[in-house]
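Ticket #4471: structure export looks truncated?
Reporter: QA, pipeline team
Priority: medium

Steps to reproduce: submit the single chain below to the structure queue and open the exported record.
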Amino acid sequence: MGIAITSGVLASLEARATTRSEGSPDRQSASASGTSTPTLLSAGDAAVPSHFIACVSRQESARKLRRTFGDLGAAGQAVEVVVGDNLQAIQQSDVVILCCKPQQAQNILSLSGVKEALDQKLLISILAGVTISQLEDWVLPTTRVVRAMPNTPCRIREGMTVVSSVPPENTLDKEIIVTIFSSIGRCRFLDEKHFDACTALSGSGPA
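Actual output as written to the record:
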């Protein structure tokens, strides 16, 4: 799913650049259905990613990712693939998407220096069954933790992502989240207590 999200964002950025060059309005539009994606009214460059770091644990996985993103042409050049160096990648990032296996999350977040590296940053987890409360126990109180549950069709950019509610004052966080997940389909903010029912209905578990 990490590949799908990154590829979707890259494609969205390319489309955004094309739209701007043609002089068309640049904004996310809401769907007419009941699963509308929030419209961005003030998203600026701060909400748009410019560099991506993909972290893997094996050289074989790194080679596969480099081929995948290499096939995207110029857009894929924005992706840096690193092996076995989560800490440095987190230190260099403003937003971290956690998309490992759920049972690996605590070990990754408990690595020496990771808590400090996540200080004041936005951590987005797409892990099934790992709650915000659990994640907050593994990071500093200053880390802003959000859960997102994309479903399987997100792999072809036709999905639905449910995102946990974001405090109203965190406007930039919300714009970043919408920028990311609207690139692979639609997204909707929902209280975490509804996640189990929603993910069962939308098929987010297999994602």
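Status: closed, not a bug. The export was complete when the record was re-opened. Leaving a note from the reviewer for reference: Confidence is low (pLDDT under 50) at residues 26-35.
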